[in-house]
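Query structure, 995 tokens:
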């Protein structure tokens, strides 16, 4: 929400950097005035339904990693990371645990214990299986071993009975969870064996020739030659040449805890994500779960060869605004919490949040937040009765109980006037102790402007830690009022989800919302208040946020009116920009919400008018006693960001500041950007991994594309991404309009980077502009068609079009020809010139999957849609009963392979689920020709490609300059955009019937 409403870029800094004035029109005294009027306490939402409480309050352990039971005993067994395994009687009043084994004592090089499991026939054979790592770079550094338990009480392992079962390389992301399935076989999870970044350095995720990144399945009751186990005959890859036959499923990054549903036998697994997502999978035989081609739904390394089976999507996923290190749980089958029967309960190590999920027969998961805790959740376990236990890494065992805490959400201020931030809210007159502040570099926020305030309660002070992070005491608030000039108002504040009618009266400046970050319990919590039409007050927006369509007077827009969508962000959207991972730089525990990101001297180091004229802003904070900090050198010498829109400033400084405030919240280490580039202002350009670097996240059919191609903005994917709307646009979140001044800035900057291509690019632009100006409409149409035949030339044309007035005949003709262009890479570049009401209604914001799946559907009508509908055009690429074309998979038995909900997801996002045979490739010839399609044949002599029109292209091998796997399916993403909900429901019913 809050500042999150715009790009990743914008907010962090905005908020972060500033402080401000007690009264915009009244001078601020040198003596600090305390802020005593705050009424922002607690949260506006009701408490979650459950809380956690110690299950065995008299027991304390160290660094717990797993808990389990053993057949035939009433004891529970826990493993500590350092090597000890202990047991205790399953009784809430138990006062003592007993040492079961000290693996460290027997294995002096032990690194950590990861897994513990008792054989299903433990009562007969006394076998206990342990997974641990040994220190050092060891190709057998992760081990599963078997011990035998001695007779007697308390139970103890015989350390001399250790027998090695299986090993795989250590090195990080070890996995190591051990579970016996209902079939009696041992299932073991493994990670990719790599560190956190860069991703999958061993490229193990899709490689089934080794055990990394897998769940493997072995029969530990029978040996096979020199192996202490046998491979079950029905494992999925036993007959695949070169594959490890032990593998049951693969494509995991760092699987952290798995479990079997004791009732259904389903295998559930939590997979810790990389930069953006945390995933839960219901694991199937032979399943491919994407890493490192994908991180859940996010593309990571799309050009690497995929494994032998199609990638399956997560059953559940959480963005890093909600979770940071997922911990897999259990399907609850106990009797103490009836409402949770059949619910998969899992949590997050980073945030401490616990969720519950129910998955319907179509594979659609419905999740609910069950509890908010401060636990460092390392594992879940169950006893013989199916009761659930939660492990806190700090050493205690917890359980869920019903939360009977009375809701206090009604006390949270629902109106801005009730927050205590302003004396006169209509005039935005701040309360005593509340300061206005300003920053050096504004982010792009879709034409809006902002005013900012900061408040620290009482005599609290801001400090700066050794990493340069500005730290605020609890109770602090940072506020920002966002306004838009010349907007036509009327129902801007309507909080319903339906678009509001906009009246025809205009204001020079209309306040849209006031966003606040409130610090409580060590976390920043974001909220936004939407201003009413009378501009007298603002009302708290609910947690889901909403979107409004606005009309704005704009002389550069068609007809003098610009249409734009404005998002009042959901609360969890705020943290996508106010990324707590960036601020922390190290692990933080407890509820994560938002961060101030760029609260650095480089943003606040400027003059600001506090009412007595312009004065040094940081020095004023020091003098006022609000900031307690010492600086290594005079503030006048400290670095500061340049204003990107100040044409008198240095071009390089402006461009680097623009990328910093608009992009670096995601594009730096540990921040969420899938492209491993570093856009922080303090990173040297040569170290940013952009110059002459081939993009890993798609080239958009730009010949010889680079992230930044010095001297050539039109060969630079970075410039392409900020110049477009639709898929692949940057910034990815928050902004829905192209920043014309920003694109011109980056165009000029890239063009002037040393490379020697600047003159040629300038000549191209002049030549195209002359052609457009000096020809008749008929000849001009041919010129436009030529320029839009390639993405690179279309980007040039788009840049030139932005210079023409909207009512110019050339502008109108370009938009008329390009708005329905067949190539999405081209069409997206010109959508910025189309009124918002005429733009593509993108599926992510429009399609309600649950609504479609709940409609009463008719398979016969769906068959007609498949074969006869020109809108869906399914048969142009797919065959059923030998009818149709074979550009995509044959669908004769598709209903047996996928549930209805999974089929819908396939259609909505076809690039997620590409089978290896139907993955498209881009082929670039030595002469610059670019083709996209399926590789039907590849030999030392030639490559045969089938394109989207079903045409075959045979290219001699010596003419192939580049052949690269693509992340985008040939199946269009917006396939359903012109279909009704009922047509989609009927089509799904038909496809589901094909078994």
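Result returned for the query:
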């Amino acid at each position: 929400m809050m500042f999150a409403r715009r790009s990743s870029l914008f907010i962090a800094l905005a908020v972060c950097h500033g402080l401000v004035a007690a009264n915009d029109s009244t001078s601020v005294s040198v003596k600090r005035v305390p802020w005593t009027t705050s009424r922002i306490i607690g949260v506006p939402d009701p408490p979650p339904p459950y809380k956690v409480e110690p299950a065995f309050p008299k027991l304390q352990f160290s660094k717990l990693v797993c808990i389990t039971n053993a057949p035939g005993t009433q004891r529970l067994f826990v493993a500590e990371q350092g090597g000890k395994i202990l047991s205790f009687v399953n009784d809430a009043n138990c006062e003592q645990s007993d040492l079961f084994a000290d693996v460290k004592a027997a294995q002096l090089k032990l690194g950590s214990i990861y897994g513990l499991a008792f054989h299903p026939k433990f009562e007969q054979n006394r076998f206990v299986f342990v997974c641990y790592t040994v220190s050092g770079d060891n190709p057998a550094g992760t081990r599963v071993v078997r011990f035998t338990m001695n007779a007697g009480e308390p139970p103890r392992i015989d350390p001399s009975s250790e027998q090695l079962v299986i090993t795989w390389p250590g090195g990080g992301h070890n996995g190591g969870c051990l579970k016996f399935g209902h079939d009696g076989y041992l299932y073991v999870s493994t990670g990719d064996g790599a560190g956190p970044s860069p991703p999958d350095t061993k490229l193990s995720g899709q490689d089934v020739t080794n055990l990394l990144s897998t769940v493997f399945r072995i029969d530990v009751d029978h040996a096979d030659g020199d192996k202490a186990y046998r491979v079950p005959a029905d494992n999925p890859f036993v007959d695949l040449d070169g594959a490890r036959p032990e593998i049951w499923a693969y494509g995991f990054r760092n699987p952290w805890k798995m479990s079997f549903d004791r009732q259904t036998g389903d295998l559930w697994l939590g997979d810790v994500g990389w930069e953006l997502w945390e995933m839960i999978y219901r694991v199937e035989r032979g399943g491919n779960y994407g890493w490192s081609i994908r991180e859940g739904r996010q593309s990571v390394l799309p050009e690497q060869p995929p494994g032998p089976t199609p990638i399956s999507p997560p059953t559940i996923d959480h963005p890093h605004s909600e979770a940071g290190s997922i911990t897999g749980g259990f399907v609850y089958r106990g009797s103490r919490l009836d409402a949770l029967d059949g619910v998969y309960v899992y949590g997050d190590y980073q945030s401490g949040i616990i969720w519950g999920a129910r998955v319907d027969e179509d594979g659609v998961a419905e999740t609910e937040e069950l509890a908010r805790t401060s636990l460092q959740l390392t594992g879940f376990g169950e006893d013989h009765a199916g009761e659930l236990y939660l492990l806190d890494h700090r050493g205690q065992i917890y359980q869920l109980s019903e939360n009977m805490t009375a809701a206090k959400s009604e006390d949270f201020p629902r109106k801005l006037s009730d927050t205590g931030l302003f004396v006169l809210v209509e005039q935005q007159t701040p309360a005593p102790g509340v300061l206005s502040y300003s920053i050096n570099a504004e982010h792009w926020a879709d034409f809006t402007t902002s005013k900012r305030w900061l408040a620290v309660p009482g005599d609290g002070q801001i400090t700066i830690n050794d990493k340069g992070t500005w730290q605020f005491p609890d109770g602090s608030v940072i506020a920002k009022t966002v306004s838009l000039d010349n907007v036509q108002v009327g129902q801007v504040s309507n909080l319903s989800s339906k678009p509001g009618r906009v009246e025809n009266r205009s204001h020079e400046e209309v306040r849209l919302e006031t966003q606040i970050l409130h610090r409580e319990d060590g976390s920043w919590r974001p909220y936004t208040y939407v201003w009413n039409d009378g501009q007298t007050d603002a009302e708290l927006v609910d947690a889901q946020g909403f979107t409004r369509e606005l009309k704005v007077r704009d002389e550069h827009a068609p007809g003098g009116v610009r249409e734009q969508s404005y998002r009042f962000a959901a609360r969890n959207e705020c943290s996508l920009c106010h990324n707590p991972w960036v601020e922390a730089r190290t692990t933080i525990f407890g509820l994560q919400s938002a961060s101030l990101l760029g609260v650095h001297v480089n943003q606040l180091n400027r003059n600001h008018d506090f009412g007595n004229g312009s004065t040094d802003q940081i020095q004023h904070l020091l003098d006022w006693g609000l900031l307690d900090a010492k600086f290594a050198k005079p503030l006048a010498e400290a670095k500061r960001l340049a204003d990107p829109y100040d044409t008198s400033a240095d071009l390089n400084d402006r461009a680097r500041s623009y990328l910093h405030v608009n992009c670096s919240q995601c594009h730096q280490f540990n921040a969420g950007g899938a492209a491993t580039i570093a856009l922080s202002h303090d990173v040297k350009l040569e170290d940013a991994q952009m110059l002459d670097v081939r993009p890993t996240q798609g080239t958009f059919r730009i010949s010889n594309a680079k992230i930044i191609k010095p001297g050539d903005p039109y060969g630079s994917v970075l410039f392409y991404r900020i110049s477009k709307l639709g898929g692949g646009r940057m910034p990815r979140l928050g902004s829905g309009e192209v920043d014309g001044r920003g694109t011109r800035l980056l165009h000029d900057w890239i063009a002037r980077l040393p490379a020697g291509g600047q003159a040629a690019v300038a000549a191209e632009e002049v030549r195209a502009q002359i052609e457009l100006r000096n020809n008749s409409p008929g000849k001009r149409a041919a010129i436009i068609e030529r320029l839009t035949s390639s993405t690179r030339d279309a980007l040039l044309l788009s840049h030139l079009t932005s210079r023409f007035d909207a009512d110019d005949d050339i502008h109108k003709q370009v938009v008329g020809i390009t708005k329905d262009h067949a190539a999405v890479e081209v069409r997206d570049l010109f959508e910025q010139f189309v009124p918002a009401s005429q733009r593509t209604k993108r599926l992510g914001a429009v399609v309600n999957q649950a609504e479609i799946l709940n409609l009463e559907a008719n398979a016969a009508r769906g068959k007609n849609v498949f074969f006869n509908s020109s809108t869906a055009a399914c048969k142009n690429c797919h065959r059923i009963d030998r009818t149709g074309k074979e550009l995509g998979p044959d669908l004769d038995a598709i209903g047996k392979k996928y549930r209805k909900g999974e089929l819908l997801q396939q259609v909505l996002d076809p690039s997620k689920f590409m089978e290896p045979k139907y993955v498209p490739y881009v082929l670039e010839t030595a002469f610059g020709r670019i083709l996209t399609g399926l590789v039907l044949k590849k030999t030392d002599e030639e490559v045969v490609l089938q394109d989207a029109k079903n045409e075959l292209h045979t290219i001699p091998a010596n003419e192939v300059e580049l052949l690269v796997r693509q992340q985008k399916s040939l199946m269009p993403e917006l396939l359903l955009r012109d279909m009704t909900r009922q047509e989609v429901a009927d089509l799904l019913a038909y496809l589901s019937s094909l078994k």
